[in-house]
Design goal:
By secondary structure, the protein is of the alpha+beta class. It folds into 4 domains: about 1-90, no CATH class; about 160-280; about 295-350; about 355-484. Helices cover about 55% and strands about 5% of the residues. It is built from 14 helices and 8 strands. The chain has helices at about 70-80, 90-135, 140-150, 160-180, 195-225, 230-250, 260-325, 330-350, 365-370, 385-390, 410-420, 440-450, 465-470, 480-484, and strands at about 5, 40-45, 185, 255, 355-365, 370-380, 400-405, 435. The strands form 3 sheets. It has a 4-stranded antiparallel beta sheet with strand order 7-5-6-8. A two-stranded antiparallel sheet has the order 1-2. Helix 6 runs antiparallel to helix 7. It is elongated and about 170 Å long.
Length: about 475
């Protein structure tokens, strides 16, 4: 007699041959859906198409529900009587399964929230550790430190570098005296080793020598590596060394004494001040040499001009005397002789008055851009010669002249113009670098206010070499990039 056998769809476990679905059986939701029109019950004589999977066979506890109407329809197609109808027990087991899954989901969400909290705590701990490390980091980029510091301010203002050398020598003697009196390191007198105060004190003494040597090595290295303006870096290094010694010597209460530490910090400050003063004195000496060289050139020009005028005057005097001996006169010669006498008087005035000279306003669009001018003065007879010297190989293009004005007190006039644009200096450290963020029009307004009307002033720079060259520059290049 033919018997109906359950035919599992592809991906379902293969049950035993005699297996029948118990009451309330529900298919596992993880199993794949059966193909459309799948025959769940086949007769024993009919070969069944079974796709097996490498999974365990279901047992009596396998769950799954097949509608009785579907079973009857399938057996009608197979030409066999359907198995006994299965009466479902209702939705209770399904709802229980859903509740269980929901509870599992809530448990997973709780675990996820806990993991998020732990991750946030770890992240905060990492940020705190990063902040602590950043606080202990010593900035070694001198250029960056100089930019942060800005204009240098002396910690111990003195007149010259020699006075700083004397102060440093006296301070170093105090440092040596502090070390000799064993006041450089502070440690506990009650530290014991192997229950022995004597051994503990001996160990403390040895460790004190060791940490003092390490501290002095760091301090001396910081002094040697000092540059004008990077004092903050050296101070951070010495502070970090003192802090590390205090942490490592906590068991013995061992640390660098505040008095000795202050002496070494003062040594750093004095050394930085000394280096800055030496740099200033060198700069002043260089500027003084340049000033003397400029004055010497001006004096040589005046002397040559005086010699030329004297020779020319002697020629005219001889010519005029010859005419007078012949009973003739020449108004042209007399006028020329008077002009030469005026030139000689002007030459003598220029030679005697070192403050007389030319104030000039120039710019270099190709080197500094369109919003920068240089305001200077020269005692040369030909101020353009001085301007040509400024536009030598140190800049890519020659300077353009906007104004040249002769003044009997050119030094004072130059100072007044500098004061008017003091807040717009390019160099706020070396005032002999006479470049300002200003336009020629702005300078003309101030200059006209000081001296009255100007006979000649060129507002727009010619900059012929710059404009001709910029057309051949690489794409995206600017004058600012070219000047760097």
């Amino acid at each position: 007699m033919a018997q109906a056998r359950f035919n599992p769809p592809p991906g379902w476990p293969v049950p035993p041959a005699e297996w029948r679905p118990p009451a309330g059986w529900v298919a596992d939701p993880t199993w794949p859906d059966p193909p459309p029109g799948w025959v769940f019950w086949v007769m024993e004589e009919e070969p069944a198409t079974v796709v097996t999977m490498p999974v365990s066979s279901p047992t009596e506890g396998v769950t799954g529900t097949i509608a009785p109407e579907a079973l009857e329809a399938e057996h009608a197609v197979a030409g066999a009587a359907p198995p006994p109808a299965i009466e479902p027990d209702g939705p209770g087991p399904v709802l229980a399964e859903i509740d269980a899954r929901r509870e599992d989901l809530r448990a997973v969400e709780r675990d996820l929230d806990r993991l998020r909290e732990e991750a946030d705590a770890i992240r905060e701990q990492g940020e705190r550790a990063k902040a602590e490390l950043r606080a202990e980091l010593v900035e070694l980029n001198d250029a960056l430190m100089l930019q942060h510091v800005g204009i240098y301010e002396y910690h111990h203002p003195l007149e010259n570098a020699e006075m700083y050398r004397e102060r440093l020598a006296a301070l170093q003697e105090r440092v040596k005296a502090t070390v000799k009196t064993r006041a450089a390191v502070v440690a506990s007198e009650m530290f014991s080793y192997n229950n022995s105060l004597a051994l503990g004190r001996r160990m403390t003494t040895e460790f004190s020598k060791l940490v003092l040597r390490a501290y002095n090595a760091e301090a001396d290295s910081s002094v040697r590596s000092l540059r004008a303006g990077n004092l903050a870096t050296a101070q951070q290094r010495v502070e970090a060394a003192a802090s590390a010694i205090s942490k490592l010597g906590a068991m013995m209460q061992l640390r660098i004494s505040p008095e000795y530490h202050q002496l070494r910090m003062e040594e750093l400050e004095l050394t930085a001040d000394y280096l800055m003063k030496v740099q200033e004195e060198r700069e002043h000496a260089r500027e003084e040499r340049e000033r003397l060289r400029e004055e010497r050139k001006a004096e040589e020009e005046l002397a040559r001009e005086r010699e030329r005028l004297e020779k020319e005057r002697s020629h005219y005097v001889i010519a005029l005397q010859t005419l007078q001996e012949q009973g003739a006169t020449s108004g042209e010669l007399e006028e020329r002789l008077a002009a030469i006498d005026d030139a000689i008087a002007q030459n003598e005035f220029r030679a005697a008055n070192i403050r007389a000279g030319y104030v000039y306003v120039i710019s270099n669009v190709g080197a500094f851009g369109s919003g920068v001018v240089k305001i200077g003065m020269t005692r040369r007879l030909d101020p353009l010669e001085r301007i040509r010297e400024l536009g030598d190989a140190s800049v890519p293009f020659p300077f353009d002249v906007h104004a040249i004005y002769f003044s009997e007190d050119a030094v004072a006039l130059e100072g007044q113009l500098h004061d008017a644009f003091a807040a717009r200096r390019l160099n706020h450290v070396n005032f002999r670098r006479e470049f300002f963020f200003a336009t020629p029009v702005e300078v003309r307004a101030v200059l006209a206010e000081k001296v009255g009307n100007l006979l000649e002033f060129t507002e727009q720079p010619e900059a012929s070499q710059y404009f001709q060259s910029s057309a051949a520059w690489p794409a995206g290049a600017t004058s600012e990039q070219a000047s760097q």
